[in-house]
């Protein structure tokens, strides 16, 4: 039987993790189930969001979080929900150039600001962002759950500061917890992306 190079098969796994972050999916079943638990008397209001350069019209409850809207109404499931209380950073998105925890942001508060999610990081032709490419090259993710949030924090940093020090990268990613402890891998990835950028 042909031996499999473990580094190559792991790289294939990581590519799949990062590619699946960019894939839109529908969650009609989940949304329908959660809608049944909606508080009595809650009224949705139709609003427009600017998501990844496109205007998206969506019905939103007053108390609805951005993470919920993105995942369960707009099908943008690359944004993950870990703690759902502003502690882990898995839900990180960029609003007008600034990272935000989407689990702790009310959708109604976003208004007309420019919202970028992990699905909007790669180019229109599918070319991965230098951060995503560097994370693959560094074999950065372990389970991959925190990866979209790590990518968003890194992208926001490099937009502001294309050549950060390692300490500046560490600070920028300090709001993104990784239960696999792959912190050094992510730091190496951002430093590589900065070199390649
Ligand atoms: S899910 Fe938003 S900070 Fe953890
Ligand atoms: S790679 Fe598993 S939580 Fe970060």
Automatic annotation (TrEMBL):
The keyword Iron applies. InterPro entries: 2Fe-2S-bd (IPR002888), 2Fe-2S-bd_dom_sf (IPR036884), 2Fe-2S_ferredoxin-like_sf (IPR036010), 2Fe-2S_ferredoxin-type (IPR001041), 2Fe2S_fd_BS (IPR006058), Beta-grasp_dom_sf (IPR012675), Diverse_Oxidoreductases (IPR051452), TAT_signal (IPR006311). Transmembrane segments: none annotated. Coiled coil: none annotated. CDD domains: fer2 (cd00207). Gene3D superfamilies: 3.10.20.30, [2Fe-2S]-binding domain. Residues 45-121 form the 2Fe-2S ferredoxin-type domain. Pfam families: Fer2, Fer2_2. Residues 1-32 form the signal peptide. Keywords: 2Fe-2S, Iron, Iron-sulfur, Metal-binding, Oxidoreductase, Signal. One of its GO terms (molecular function) is 2 iron, 2 sulfur cluster binding. This is (2Fe-2S)-binding protein. It comes from Woeseia oceani.
